[in-house]
Amino acid sequence: MRTRNVLVLLAAAGLLACGGERIPPKALVDARAEYTRAKSGVTLKLDPTDVHEADLALQKAESAWNNDPDDPNTIDLAVIAQRKAQIAEAEAAATQAQADAQQAKADLEAAMAAQLQSARGQLNQTQQALNQTQTQLQQTAAQAAAQQKQLADLEAKLKDARDTIAKIAAVKDDDRGMVITLQGEVLFKTGKWDLKPGAMAKLDQIADALRGKEQPMVVYGFTDNVGARDMNMDLSQKRAQSVRDYLVTKGIPTDLIKAEGKGPDNPVAENTSVEGRAQNRRVEIVVQPKKS
Amino acid sequence: MRFATITLLSVSTAMLAMACGGSLPPPNDEWAAAQADVGRAEAGGAPAVPDAKLHLQLAQEDLQKSKALIDNDNKRAASLIAVARVEAQLALSIAKQTAAQDAARKAQDDLQKAKGGGGQ
Q1: ipTM associated with this complex
Q2: Shortest CA distance to B96 belongs to which of B38, B54, B49?
Q3: Could you tell me the pTM of the whole model?
Q4: How far is B13 from chain A (nearest CA, A)?
């Protein structure tokens, strides 16, 4: 009997103790923690409405726990409070992610725009370089055409000159250039080196044809092998000089024309016949190719 | 003395019955609203996200339980329906969050690729 009384007392004391600070259900503990999380992070800033809803739900759950701890609906209210805090966090995270995505898209657009602009700049530069190259190419082509025309003109003039000369003298080409051969009888009396009047008329035409060509020339004098070599050398030198001097008076520049006596050297025919010796007595005007 | 006790007990039981919601109207409107929340969560992609799918299932279970309780214990049914609603709403919010985070990740990947020069 006494023991029983003690037990009853102990039970009552225990009940009293527990009533003061009873252990709250797990759902409520979770709800408090979830709400604390939602309120302390960025969630409150990003989704204040749902955090407020969670606050109201938690207050409702706390008051149910205080007033009616044994009601099964009390646990439901705690679960609702926890879910509302979770909703706030999920909504805030979604909002944050949307902002992040928007920022990334804006950055992407900016990066693309920058790349596009850079590509356009490069394209422009390439275009400019191409234009420049084209202009240069056109200039070069024009220059080449002009040079070609000049060359053609020169060749035409040369041909004209040659044609003109060919009417009055023998003209041939060898490795020295264009060679105009005038027979000695046409130019000089025997043993003399002053020009016959008829020779001057021919040389006038040759000077006309060669004037302005700016090609170097050498006048060579030749004799046959009759007589002393020294005399022949001297005579051929004087004759070449006469022709050279006359051509100078007709406008061939002094520095472009020289005279040289070759005597009996380089015969063009045998000296054994009259005709052969006549052919060897000659003056050759060698027009050298123009130096480039 | 005994009679008084019995009378007191009867009155208490009656009051308790009232308090328990036996006299509350059936929460048919709330049930329909919860059903709509479940529909929104399903349409919002919750079944495809494991965490959202879990809360969607909880919502559906609570709705099933509450249906059986309607007319017998309307207060308890209403409480379960309220839980079902927040479970469904949370399922939708988680689905939204997952979709938004996936989209953000993709946008950031695209950005990195573009910055990396051609993205090879």
Answers
A1: 0.79
A2: B49
A3: 0.57
A4: 16
